Amino acid sequence: EAQVTQNPRYLITVTGKKLTVTCSQNMNHEYMSWYRQDPGLGLRQIYYSMNVEVTDKGDVPEGYKVSRKEKRNFPLILESPSPNQTSLYFCASSFGGGNNQPQHFGDGTRLSIL
Amino acid sequence: GDSVTQMEGPVTLSEEAFLTINCTYTATGYPSLFWYVQYPGEGLQLLLKATKADDKGSNKGFEATYRKETTSFHLEKGSVQVSDSAVYFCALRGQGGTASKLTFGTGTRLQVTL
Lengths: 114, 114
Hints:
The complex is a heterodimer.
Chain A: E1 4-7, E2 10-13, E3 19-25, E4 31-38, E5 42-51, E6 54-57, E7 65-66, E8 76-78, E9 87-94, E10 104-105, E11 109-113
Parallel strand pairs in A: 2-11
Antiparallel strand pairs in A: 1-3, 3-8, 4-5, 4-9, 5-6, 7-8, 9-10, 9-11
Chain B: E1 3-6, E2 11-14, E3 19-21, E4 23-26, E5 32-38, E6 44-50, E7 56-59, E8 62-65, E9 75-77, E10 86-93, E11 103-104, E12 108-113
Parallel strand pairs in B: 2-12
Antiparallel strand pairs in B: 1-4, 3-9, 5-6, 5-10, 7-8, 8-9, 10-11, 10-12
C-alpha cells in the first residue's frame, strides 16, 4: 500500500531535549516536505527536499533541521525543542516538484513540549 | 506571495443538505488547486484537484471548478452525509519557485447532523 509513515504519532517531552520525528515514503517520490498545523493558521511549510541531498527552507524553518540521505526518508530534527514548537506535524511527498503534483500526507505527529 | 482564503467555520448542516465551502486564492500565473479533507485524528487526504482554468475536479460526490476570472475554487456537494463531517482545506501549488510548497487556507470544519 502506498503510504507516508511518520513516527512517533504522539510525543510529550521537555524543553531542550533533542528529538527526531521520522518520515518514510514507499512511493519512490523525489519531493518531500514537512508542515506544521496550528489552530487558525492552517498548515505552514517548515522544510522541503526536491531530491536526495537537496533541502531548502520553507516558511517557518527556525528551530528545525532536516536531512535527506536516502530517497525514502526525510527526518525532522528539533535540536533544542521549545514550547512554541508544540504543534501537529505532517510529512508529505509527491512524485516531483511540479505544481500539478498532489502531495500525499502522513497521519501526523502531535508534539507537546513542556 | 500566494495566499488562500476560505470561509470561516464551523458549517453545520443536516444530512442530505447542499454544501458549498467558498475558497478564493491569490497567486501569479497558473497555480494548481486542491481540496484536502482531514477526518478526526487522521492526516490530510487529497479530495480533488484541478490543474488549469475551467477544469472541474470531482470525487466522492464533491466537485470544484477552477475559475480563473474570479480566482475561486469553491467546493460543492449536492447531498451531504454524516460521514462527510471533517475539516476541509483548500490549497494551491504555484508555479516556479512557489511550486515547492502547498499554500493552505485555514480550513473549514463541517459538521453534518441527522
